[in-house]
Amino acid sequence: MGAPIPLSPLAPGAFPDLPAIAGVRYATTQAGVRYTGRDDVMLAVLSPGSTIAGAYTRSATRSAAVLDCQEKTGHISDQGAAILVNSGNANAFTGRHGTDAVKFVTEAAAKALNLPESRIFTSSTGVIGEPLPHDKITTKLDELVVNLSADTIKDAAQAIMTTDTFPKGSGTTVHVDGQPVHIAGIAKGSGMIAPDMATMLVYIFTDAVVNQTVLQSMVSALNNKTFNCITVDSDTSTSDTLIVGATGASGIRVTENSVGFMEGLRQVMLDLAHQVVRDGEGATKFVEISVTGASSDTDARTHAMAIANSPLVKTAIAGEDANWGRVVMAIGKSGAPADRDTLSIWFGDIRVAHEGWVDPSYNEAAAAAYMKQQELTIHVDLGLGGGTAVVWTCDLTHGYIDINADYRS
Amino acid sequence: MGAPIPLSPLAPGAFPDLPAIAGVRYATTQAGVRYTGRDDVMLAVLSPGSTIAGAYTRSATRSAAVLDCQEKTGHISDQGAAILVNSGNANAFTGRHGTDAVKFVTEAAAKALNLPESRIFTSSTGVIGEPLPHDKITTKLDELVVNLSADTIKDAAQAIMTTDTFPKGSGTTVHVDGQPVHIAGIAKGSGMIAPDMATMLVYIFTDAVVNQTVLQSMVSALNNKTFNCITVDSDTSTSDTLIVGATGASGIRVTENSVGFMEGLRQVMLDLAHQVVRDGEGATKFVEISVTGASSDTDARTHAMAIANSPLVKTAIAGEDANWGRVVMAIGKSGAPADRDTLSIWFGDIRVAHEGWVDPSYNEAAAAAYMKQQELTIHVDLGLGGGTAVVWTCDLTHGYIDINADYRS
Q1: Interface test with A, best of B287, B317, B333 (most A CBs within 10 A)
Q2: Which residues cross the membrane (chains A, B) (predicted)?
Q3: pLDDT at B269
Q4: Does chain A have fewer CB atoms within 10 Å around its N or its C terminus?
Q5: pLDDT at B172 over 50
Q6: pLDDT tens track for B284-317
């Protein structure tokens, strides 16, 4: 597996203090699926009456666990629920064996927790194409159940890491009708690495009472503005999974009109999404790309993602080069409408290009100084209409090549 | 501009001996547009009666010269024609000034050559966003006209280079109705670099007699199987230009049924396209990606380009890692139909994955040995239908980061 990957320079100072979510308990253990000397299985159990919403990778080669979760999401139940995750093996591209492995694990977990199989959600992340040693997981279930605790969400965040360089957590407390409601979540992901497919996995919990269809519609809408707006290397995992569980333990009901709750959930999702970018393979710069003035929001997003995924834009950022020519190139190739002569580009507050040419007041020294910052914004106004989009990415550095080409034996 | 870029390890041994094309003469000179101590302007003049076909970038931010060439291509004329190219400045994203600069240059060239402006085709490649110093080019026109020669196609190939590490030429002689017809072409391109936008420029000449509409339909069809099937970094130039001129000097007429001529033209175009990949920034491996069994040719191409552009696939190749998991990932994310359980993947002759799982006979040592070769093939069969595609790419190495991030001051 090569040398350890150093902590991302963009990592937050510490794992945050997260609010406890009544109705959710966590346990972790060392099952030795692949890694040794660290926890690699995480169980989260939600109390009866919890509602579950989810969003999953659109990959055509998605894993057996993802297919199983997708089938179970949307099902209404008064029973509790559980999320069981292993790191070290993704159980992806494992054919019939993969489907069987999910069945073994969910059956065993359902029995250990006295829950219907339809309420057991599993994820696997790590090496692909190798059979999942499901016995190593199922033999640990009794121990996991005994050790369930409300206080170990940080351990849960650590157990699901693969090539992540820091555990990712975020939480908030919002008020609904004057009453406090809590939200806390964890995530893993740092790009994609094979054999460790460092796919994105996200689990968020709240003690609010939320109808499943309301929760699902919130999660789907917010996912499009958060996790679907980040890119490290344009590659898409076979296993991306976002599950949001609402235990209802607070007794506070959230409806589709609960703007404060939705905003709190958005903040937690966005914070976790940003942390995934901050742990991007080899990342040294965190970059927000905003596009305005597009013909539509969809066009704005197409342009923003073309810029965010361009290897030439990303290497320029790594080189601290205010290379607006590469931004023009990315806009040109995106396929969405653009007019060279109405285009303006800003790096931070510095307008570098205006109406199809370098800005008359452009000062290369000021732009070069700006590019030395660790957090950057690139803003493009297309001058065509009212469409807007914001996405987040990181730079493309030698560290990315190191992690993906050199470090593997 | 930083240190010089070392010669690509994939470069051919020498510039090929190209057949002379009756009716085409070349001249080059040092105009000092940006580079010093080397030729940076190339003039090619075609005899009266030549037909001209072309293919151009689809970028929405294409340069003024590209727009001008597009407008002129398809025009029928009995007059001669000329192609005037400068390196060092792309005259892209230069607003109204850019359009004016093309006008100045084409007017001056038309006068110097006694040709209508509609028969002057120009290209510019190099730094973008800076005004083209068109006077430096136009003052050299008389010298260029005096020095026109049939024997200097290699000088022409060198004058159009920017960050290319070797000049690119290809030629062949085919027989039409038993009579020899000659084809010779030059190209430049090695990815895209700003400020040097190392865009692709290609000029191919033949002494065949070819009706303009026949030539254009051949060029358009062959372009889709050659230059449109290569990728270095997924980025698209503002200036990509392919011009094919047929002088008719051989007196041998080619029709849409001249299979031998079309095959010769295809070989020259493919050879030049491959040379661009071989000069890909930082490239150490030349990779053919073929997809069969797709639902359609379009789907096959979508999958092949997703594999060819995936940073994770390309870094795995750089690391000499037979990482078929990343190929599965790229297929999954491409958006075209795929069924995990009918998918097979080969690295060279080694079948690494079959029917949705690692091949039972897979031998990692054999695959690792194969990956050490400089020329690689990856073949995917989707098991869905009859759609096929072949594309070519290179690996993603530290050299790419060096060239695009580190080397620029």
Answers
A1: B333
A2: none
A3: 96
A4: C
A5: yes
A6: 999 999 999 999 999 999 999 999 988 889 999 9
Helix B297-309 and helix B311-318: axis angle, to 10°? 60
Say how far apart CA B310 and CA B326 lie, in whole Å.
Answer: 8
Q: How far is B121 from chain A (nearest CA, A)?
A: 22
pLDDT of residue A128: 80
Residue B278 predicted with pLDDT over 70: yes
Residue B408 has pLDDT above 60, yes or no: no
Of the listed B165, B199, B231, B302, which one is catalytic? Answer: B199
* Last residue within a domain, chosen from B256, B278, B300: B278
B355: left (phi over 0), alpha (psi -120 to 50) or beta: left
What's chain A's Rg over C-alpha atoms?
22
Domains in chain A, number: 2
User: What amino acid occupies position B324?
Assistant: W
pLDDT score of B75: 87
Segments forming the whole domain that contains residue A341: 286-406
* Nearest-by-Cβ selection for A93 from B235, B328, B404: B328
Within-domain flag for B7: no
B12: in domain: no
Residue A364 lies in a domain: yes
Alpha-carbon gap, residue B225 to B214, rounded angstroms? 17
Q: Which two tokens stand for residue A120?
A: 């057991």
Sites in chain A below the pLDDT cut of 70 = 1-3, 191-198, 234-236, 406-409
E-only strand ranges, B47-93: 51-56, 81-89
Contact A21, A206 (CB under 8 A): yes
Cα separations in angstroms, B282 against A346, B193, B279, B318: 30, 12, 8, 10
Token readout for B404 is: 């695009």
Question: SS3 for A55?
Answer: strand
Residue range A74-126, pLDDT digits in tens = 988 999 999 999 999 989 888 889 999 999 999 999 999 999 999 999 999 98
Could you tell me if B25 and B144 are in contact, meaning their C-beta atoms sit under 8 angstroms apart? no
| Residue A86 to residue A34: CA distance in whole angstroms | 10
B-chain residues near A336 (CB < 8 A)? 60
Decide if B17 is inside a domain.
no
Shortest CA gap A63–chain B (Å): 9
Q: In what order do the strands lie in the sheet with A120-127?
A: A24-29, A41-46, A81-89, A120-127
Out of A255, A278, A301, a domain closes at A278
CB atoms A405 and B238 under 8 Å: no
DSSP B296-337: SHHHHHHHHHHHHH-HHHHHHHHTT---HHHHHHHHHHSSS-
A290 and A206 fall within a common domain: no
